[in-house]
Structure formats: structure tokens, C-alpha cells
Write a structure and sequence with these properties.
The protein has helices spanning 3-12, 16-30, 32-41, 50-56, 61-82, 104-107, 121-130, 166-179, 201-208, 231-237, and strands spanning 89-93, 113-118, 135-138, 152-157, 180-190, 213-215, 226-228, 242-247, 260-265. The protein is α/β, with parallel strands linked by helices and 269 residues long. It has a single domain (3-265), classed as Vaccinia Virus protein VP39 (Rossmann fold), CATH 3.40.50. A seven-stranded mixed beta sheet has the order 3-2-1-4-5-9-8. It has a two-stranded antiparallel sheet with strand order 6-7. β4 (152-157), α8 (166-179) and β5 (180-190) form a beta-alpha-beta unit. The longest helix is centred in the N-terminal third of the chain and has 22 residues, at 61-82. The chain starts with a helix and ends with a strand. The relative contact order is 0.12. The chain binds S-adenosylmethionine.
């Protein structure tokens, strides 16, 4: 039986949370030496509790902090190609415990205002208490944000659609589109063709038909809920916006499969 089949069987048997919980302890133990070295070297860096870090990323403090900074710089360089950032409103949708948005005020100053939203109450509580120059909001799983129509210049969502059902893709895309200003930029990461290696034969057949592949049977939005995005599905989702870039990232690290990045612009009318 291949890995995809085993994973799907564990979901059906409702054993997936147990496996995830074991994975959490495995990571915690595996990284304890490097993590305590990071803490000693950088006592000033505020870090979220391990479980919040695990739920949204992995328990490696250096990768969490410095990787988050690198990602913030990479994102900013891509925003700048398409939009003037001076005095912009910038929203991190699905910010988790702030891995990326915490760096944005330093990476992009330019008089911008920064916002973060997530459906995980504990992540938002931690962010609100610890990252004081950003405005945080706790949203629901369903698409309903408190921001005005046409209020954000830039919205980004790193690995959020990767954990949502098909219905939520349509609802959330409409909601993000509502909040974005005309000419504003939306940057999203997706499980594209790189992830085909992780799919079962039946899932590949669905994917090759251009249909979204969803692995559920766990709480929607949780790290264990997974969606995989063939290009035709996204082209349909993005039919009313201008696609600016589709970046297919490559990796030489066989343990890291990179997500695709899509950058789209809201049309003026
Ligand atoms: C893989 S984590 C990524 C976190 C963060 N973007 C990062 O890159 O560090 C996925 C995040 O999406 C959040 N999430 C899932 N469904 C959501 C929804 N409907 N609305 C907002 N956030 C959601 C989860 O709580 C989690 O923080």
C-alpha cells in the first residue's frame, strides 16, 4: 500500500489526529537541541507556544523566525513588482501565530498599516498580546471578514486554501475580492503539480480532470485537512481577476515540496 493510501485509511479510521499528535511530540523532541540553542542565542525573540507553531508550521525556532523573515522579504519584493506600497493596507489572511506578518512592519515600512486575521482563537490571542504594531482579528471558518469593501491594497494567504473545501474556495475568494481595492493585489499559495507525488492513483485521476482534490474527515481548516489545486480549477476560480504571476517553485530538498504562488489583481471595475 502506498503512503497516500495509508494516509487516507487513517483518516477513515479517525486515527489521523492521533498520528498528528505523535508527529507533534516527535518534532518537539527531534528539534529540542537546536531550539534551545536558538533560545539561548536570541532571548529577545518572542516565540509562540510550540503547539501553535506546530499547527501552522513546524517546531523549529530558527526556521520559524528567520524563515518567516525571509518569506516576508520575498513576498514584499513580489508585491513591489505590481503595486506602489506607500501608505498601503496589507492583510495576512490565515496569519497563524504571526510567522510572516510579524516581520512586515520592518520589511515594508512606507507608512503602511498591517492586519492579520485567522480562525484560530489561540493564535490571534497570542498575536494580539505579543505583536503590537499589527491589528489582529479572529474570523470564522466561513468567509466573513470585518473589513470594509475595497479597503486593502494587498492581501496574502500562505497555505490557507490548501486546508479548505471546494465550497470554501468560492466563498473565501469572493470575500477576499470584496475586501481588496480595485487594482489591489492578492497573493495565494496552493498545492500545485509538485504535490502530485503525494496523491493516490484515484486522486491523480481526479486532479488530472482539473478538479480540486480534497482530503477531509478532519476539522476543516486544520493542518490535516488538505486540498490540491490543478491549474484549470484555479483558472476558473480566478476568472474575474487578472492573473499576474503563477510561480512554480522548485526544491533540491527532497523533504520539502514547495507550493505554487499565484498573484492576481482585482480589476478596476
Ligand atoms: C499552514 S497554516 C499557515 C499559517 C501562516 N500563513 C504561515 O504561513 O505561517 C494555515 C493557517 O490557516 C488558518 N486557517 C484555516 N482556515 C482558515 C479560515 N477559514 N480563515 C482564516 N484562517 C484559517 C489556520 O488557523 C492556520 O493558522
Amino acid at each position: 500500500m502506498n503512503k497516500a493510501k495509508v494516509t487516507n485509511l487513517l483518516r477513515q479510521l479517525k486515527l489521523f489526529y492521533l498520528i498528528d499528535w505523535l508527529r507533534f511530540y516527535y518534532q518537539k523532541i527531534k528539534n529540542r537541541t537546536v531550539n534551545s540553542a536558538f533560545k539561548k542565542k536570541h532571548p529577545e525573540v518572542k516565540l509562540p507556544p510550540d503547539y501553535l507553531m506546530y499547527e501552522s508550521f513546524q517546531i523549529n525556532y530558527d526556521k520559524y523566525y528567520n524563515g518567516g523573515l525571509k518569506m516576508a522579504k520575498w513576498l514584499a519584493s513580489h508585491f513591489k513588482k505590481h503595486i506602489e506600497l506607500k501608505h498601503s493596507n496589507i492583510l495576512d489572511w490565515g496569519c497563524g501565530p504571526g510567522r510572516i506578518i510579524r516581520h512586515m512592519p520592518d520589511v515594508i515600512n512606507s507608512g503602511c498599516k498591517f492586519f492579520g486575521t485567522d480562525y484560530n482563537q489561540k493564535s490571534i490571542d497570542w498575536c494580539s498580546k505579543n505583536l503590537l504594531d499589527i491589528e489582529f482579528n479572529k474570523n470564522k471558518l466561513e468567509a466573513n471578514l470585518p473589513y470594509e469593501n475595497n479597503s486593502m491594497d494587498v492581501i496574502y494567504g500562505i497555505s490557507i486554501f490548501t486546508h479548505l473545501s471546494e465550497q470554501m474556495h468560492y466563498q473565501w475568494f469572493n470575500e477576499l475580492h470584496r475586501v481588496l481595492k480595485p487594482n489591489g493585489i492578492l497573493l495565494l499559495s496552493m498545492h500545485g503539480d509538485n504535490f502530485k507525488v503525494k496523491l493516490s492513483k484515484a486522486e491523480i485521476d481526479t486532479y488530472n480532470q482539473g478538479k480540486l482534490v480534497v482530503r477531509g474527515q478532519v476539522k476543516e481548516g486544520h493542518r490535516t485537512f488538505a486540498a490540491f489545486h490543478p491549474k484549470p480549477f484555479l483558472e476558473y476560480l480566478f476568472k474575474d481577476v487578472e492573473v499576474l504571476e503563477h510561480i512554480i517553485q522548485t526544491s533540491t530538498n527532497k523533504n520539502w515540496v514547495p507550493q505554487d504562488i499565484w498573484i492576481v489583481r482585482k480589476k478596476k471595475t
